[in-house]
Specification:
Layout lengths: L10 H64 L4 H28 L6 H18 L1
Helix pairs in contact: 1-2, 1-3
Amino acid sequence: MLRQDYPERGVGELISNLYHDFQRVLTQTVELAKAEMSEKTSKLAKDGVLVAVGGVLGFAGFLFLLLALTAALALAMPFWAAALIVGGLVSAIGAALAVSGYSKMKKVDLTPERTVQSLKEDREWLKSQVS
């Protein structure tokens, strides 16, 4: 390989430049991670509010439907038996929905992909600068 004409710099200056470059890259990476996580958590918070409001309204309507179902069953059997049947059915459905929702929540990936990719690139850059 041909030697190119570069201004002669001392080892100290090269290490200092490398340190400052690495410090700048690290600071930018941290800022990217903050921005990416803020973006993701903000979206989750907005979606969470919609879920909460919908859940409260749906729950109120659902209680009235359960009351109507219990009253209808009470025409054919004792009220306590009707309430027990409706309560057991609702509890089973609620448990199934809770398990399903929990498994879907576990699949949400909060990993800041761009930041991780940037860190990998920074590591490769640093390796190339050192060697």
